[in-house]
Amino acid sequence: MISKQVKWRIAAGGVLCVCLCGALLTAQQAQQSVDAATTVTEMTQVLSRPTDHSVAVNVLAPNAMESYVEYGATPGRYSGKTAAVKSGAKAPFEIVVDKLKPNTRYFYRLEYREVEKGKYAAAAEYSFHTARPANAPFIFDVQADS
Fold this sequence. Notes:
alpha+beta, 3-stranded antiparallel β-sheet, 1 helix, globular
């Protein structure tokens, strides 16, 4: 017999899968619909494809940019950084952060500038957690708008 706790975890996992699938489909549709007539007023970042050793940072910005990601296990202290990636105006691009430790919280920020112009500027710091071992307990929240 399956306990109530296991049933709730299975149900919560199903809800999470539905939410993630919806978010991925929305991101794919948004990426496909960006064209010359699209208005992009600010830079946006979305994480995708998390594993136990990597995550992808997907970025969309109004201007052509040169960007890289700094990351580390302590807030404000970045022990690693990715190679710089150049992008066109209103062109979605991806920066893969890899060679990470499993089951670890990382703090990161995007560094960006106009292509080959001036100093890099730092975006806000965010965090993510690499995949935990199978069957490891964790808590998450699901929020919805009625």
